[in-house]
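As practice, study what follows.
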Amino acid sequence: MFDPQNYWLFGYGSLIFKEPPHVVERVPGYVENSVRRFWQSSIDHRGTEEQPGRVVTLLTHETFTKLGGEFEFESDYTVYGVAFKIDPKYAEEVREQIDYREKHGYQPVVLPFHAKSGGNWSCIAYVGSEDNDAFVGPETPEAVAKIISTTVGPSGPNIDYLVNLEKAIRELHPENQPDEYLERLLQLTKMFKADSV
């Protein structure tokens, strides 16, 4: 899976707006047959053990359907993000850093990546699968938004994660269908945040 000479990471969450070090190439694109959802809890970045936050993970369409997820939005059929090529001289160092950063429930998997400009190749993505302890499973956008609007962790307020991710996806892929799930979640989160002030 890990080839230091050809080490590509696919960012679909915080890696997009807080990218890994030693990047030599940054390519916008997407993965298919996947859904992005805030179904992973966070106690080490955007929440605490007492009040876990929510962060994104990727689910295959098969797993998403099996767990009772509903395909509510057009963007549920393609997950847009960015692929990062890591300088081979620092590949081992970066892998160790990302392993540590994603230690709370995420595991590396290989996914076929499609570049927006054309071409495709394999990328490593860190995914919180359904069998990890931090996996929450299906939650409505309303339930997730309520949590995101109030939780804070060592990396800052949970709402900042959502705001940064939604903005990054919109700017990376302005000509494509927006991620309606992220847009809806942000709208709800801002509403709950305003109501709590």
Remarks:
- The mean pLDDT is 94.
